[in-house]
Write a structure and sequence with these properties.
Blueprint (H helix, E strand, L loop, with lengths): L1 H48 L48 H8 L7 H11 L1 E7 L3 E6 L2 H7 L9 E2 L6 E6 H5 L11 E2 L5 H10 L3 E7 L9 E7 L5 E7 L1 H15 L9 E3 L3 E2 L4 E3 L2 E2 L19 E7 L1 H4 L8 H12 L5 E7 L5 H6 L1 H6 L4 E5 L2 H7 L5 H4 L4 H8 L1 H4 L8 H28 L3 E5 L11 H10 L4 H22 L2 E3 L19 H35 L1
Parallel strand pairs: 13-14, 13-15, 15-16, 16-17
Antiparallel strand pairs: 1-2, 1-8, 2-4, 3-4, 5-6, 6-7, 7-8, 9-10, 11-12
Helix pairs in contact: 9-19, 16-18
Length: about 575
């Protein structure tokens, strides 16, 4: 009994001792963490006030790097567009009439599931593959439209993973269309009548039926779209094509304005993150042409002898404090200097916030400008807007974890700790399913028009080569997610490189040749001096291709003159 009392007493003393040291350790850890947090906050204040980090800073010495990583050794002839090319029904046209639209929709019963997906992608459609009784078998649409459509309508158990271009579904058409599936929070669109009548009419007449989905006309007159219904010859299969391309972007704009009531939409936009107002002179720094892109109006049809390049992308293509300080403007200067006497034009078709799915809706403009070469700097907006982030803690803008991220600069700087091999695999799969699917649709359509297509890697800071001072600034400008996004961006570059090798497209190794990280304004954007470096790298990578194109054109012209 005495031994038991002694044992209990010893255990009690050990517990009291442990509790004492724990009580001492807690304030020490707290004080240490508080001191570290105060140090980092002081560092943030220093970064904010440092004049050398101003966005418009310019280096005294111009940097013109030589290429250390070379593009693939393909000649202009080897770089020619190749099959599979888009069919005529896949190619979007400017100002398509309702009759032409319906004729295109009438082809749906004769197309394969992948062809329906390609049609949906190129024309901003969501196509429902149904039985005559209204049972929905599949959805053909881009990932963003599919997720938007399915919000609150079908549970995950009602969906099957598809083959990359379709999702199988198990629910009724009436159930789907009679609910505010597009945005349950705002209830923008209502259905005036049942689609069953249109389905029956399509089966009876063999003609495309059109139904208008109206919004609240008094409050939101712009939110409306058409549904096209067509039946197979036997009447056993029914297809409903929802014209959602423009509507989706209007919905995005609406949600922004409803979230911030005092938000005044920038005067440049028709639709935010999608389309600028055309033929406007907003300031000495920004003039838009008739297509709504930055810079002077390109001559259409393209004059004989002109070699025209169109640069497509988001803000990383649009960027430049002035129209003549964007990378396409600098690229034109570089190429004209390299090939004097040749009329070379480079058009900046970048639109801030534009995703690869949105590039497809700009195709009529791209094709009308008749480019010889299109350069895509693509994928950044897919990453930050359209691809769901798999790690909630470091990058989420919602939920309790974000509170710690916002309160603590120490926590915010630890983003990259969460980017492991599984996260890299997740992003690789997402880029393949979303970005590459969209890019392949672009490539097919450009190939059908004889237009060559090139893709560039995305410049992003490398934590192994960037100085701590520059790293701190880039992290601050990137909302403390620079390192995480940079790692995801390098996965994107790997996917783009592999795609270009597989499809024999020119791959421009920009990230591999860019180390001037002091010219970056965040994890993906660069300042005007950085645009000059970017143009130099692009010009060096394109030199042999442009030389081959000009040589081939001169040979054709000489032969024609001799004949």
């Amino acid at each position: 009994m005495c031994e038991n009392k002694t044992t209990v007493g010893n255990r009690g003393r050990r517990m009291l001792t442990a509790a004492f040291w724990l009580a001492c350790a807690i304030p020490v850890v707290f004080i240490g963490a508080l001191a570290l947090e105060m140090f980092l906050r002081a560092r943030v204040a220093e970064i904010q006030s440092a004049p050398k980090y101003e966005k418009n800073r310019t280096l005294a010495t111009k940097i013109h790097p030589e290429l250390t990583v070379l593009p693939p050794a393909l000649s202009w002839a080897e770089f020619a567009p190749h099959p599979p090319r888009a069919a005529s029904w896949e190619i979007p046209r400017a100002e398509e009439s309702p009759a032409q639209r319906q004729a295109r929709i009438a082809l749906l019963p004769s197309l394969t599931p992948e062809e329906r997906y390609r049609l949906a992608m190129a024309h901003g459609l969501a196509i429902l593959d149904c039985t005559a009784s209204g049972h929905v078998n599949a959805i053909h649409a881009n990932d963003k439209l599919r997720s938007l459509m399915l919000r609150g309508v079908a549970s995950r158990s009602q969906l099957d993973s598809g083959a990359g271009y379709t999702w199988a579904a198990r629910w009724d058409l009436a159930e789907f269309l009679d609910k505010p599936w597009h945005d349950r929070e705002y209830d923008l669109v209502t259905v005036p009548c049942s689609v069953a009548d249109q389905v029956q009419a399509a089966r009876d007449t063999g003609q495309v039926q059109v139904q208008r989905f109206e919004s609240n006309p008094a409050e939101y007159p712009e939110f409306a779209f058409d549904a096209y219904v067509v039946a197979s010859e036997s009447g056993e299969d029914v297809f409903v094509a929802l014209d959602l391309g423009r509507w989706y972007h209007l919905g995005t704009q609406f949600r922004v304005q409803r979230t911030w009531q005092d938000f005044d939409l920038d005067e440049r936009w028709i639709i935010h993150d999608f389309q600028y107002k055309p033929n406007r002179h907003f300031s000495d720094a920004l003039v838009t042409n008739r297509f709504g892109y930055r810079g002077a109006d390109p001559v259409v049809p393209k004059p004989s002898g002109v070699f025209r390049i169109v640069c497509i992308g988001g803000s990383t293509t649009y960027d430049g404090d002035w129209d003549n300080t964007s990378y396409p403007a600098f690229l034109e200067q570089e190429l004209r200097a390299a090939f004097p006497g040749h009329p070379i034009e480079v058009i900046n078709a970048g639109v801030q916030g534009l995703r690869t799915r949105s590039q497809l809706l700009h195709l009529p403009n791209f094709l009308e400008m008749q480019p010889d070469l299109v350069i895509g700097y693509l994928g950044v907006n897919d990453l930050i807007h359209d691809i769901e982030k798999p790690v909630a803690f470091p990058v989420s803008a919602e939920g309790p974890p974000s509170v710690f991220k916002e309160l603590s600069r120490c926590v915010a700087r630890r983003n990259a700790w969460f980017f492991d091999a599984s996260v890299a695999d997740y992003y690789r799969d997402q880029f393949q399913q979303l970005t590459i699917n969209n890019v392949e649709s672009l490539r097919r359509i450009f190939a059908a028009q004889g237009i060559r297509f090139a893709l560039a890697s995305i410049a992003t800071p490398n934590e192994e080569r960037v100085s701590r001072e520059v790293s701190d600034y880039i992290e601050f400008r990137s909302g403390w997610a620079a390192d995480f996004h940079a790692r995801a961006s390098r996965v994107l570059n790997d996917v783009l490189r592999a795609y270009c090798a597989r499809e024999r497209l020119l791959y421009i190794p920009f990230d591999e040749n860019f180390e001037q990280y002091e010219l970056m304004t965040d994890w993906c954007h660069i300042n005007d001096e950085g645009n000059r470096v970017k143009a130099r790298v692009f010009a060096l990578a394109l030199h042999d291709f442009v030389a081959g194109a000009l040589g081939a054109r001169n040979a054709v012209q000489t032969s024609a003159a001799t004949d």
